[in-house]
Structures are given as structure tokens and as C-alpha cells.
Fold:
Amino acid sequence: EWTEIIVIFMPIFIPLLDNFGIDPLFFGLLVALNLQTAFLSPPVAMSAFYLKGVAPPHVTLNQIFAGMLPFMGIQVIAVVLLYVFPAIGMWLPTVLYR
Structure:
């Protein structure tokens, strides 16, 4: 699902970044974190289904989702922190490339 999102939506949004004064690198960081969060979150949560495929038969999908909740919380906090404090994600690229 991440490939479809990138192929379909990025050509639409990338040209708009200049109009709104958004740094493309910062936008890329936000997109990457959001895609990673989507990979963990139900109802699609491909990572849960991959794990279910290799887990013992007694492990249910509900148990897997319950185990993923703390990591989803961490992801959401990371997205919010990056949005509120962009310097968290931009300091290293700024030092290396600018």
C-alpha cells in the first residue's frame, strides 16, 4: 500500500510544496513516518498479517494488535513531535547537506 500512496499522491503534492513554503525534506520525513504508522495500524496493518503468518497457531490477530499498540503510540508521538518541532528531524540533514 505504501507504493501506491507514493506513486499516486507524491506527484500531486510535491509540486505544491513550493506554493505553501514547505521544505521537501521535512515533507518527506513526515510522509515516511506516516507510512510507517499506517503499516502498523489496523485495519490494513500489513505487518500484523505478516507476523500472524509466522506466529504459532495459538497467537491470535487480536493479541498481535494489542502488542502493537505501544509501538503505534510511539509512532503517533513521533509524528506529532516532528510536526511541532521540525528541528528534531532536520538537524542532521542541515549539518550534512546545507
User: Anything to note?
Assistant: The chain has one domain: 2-97. Helices lie at 2-20, 24-40, 46-54, 61-84, 87-97.
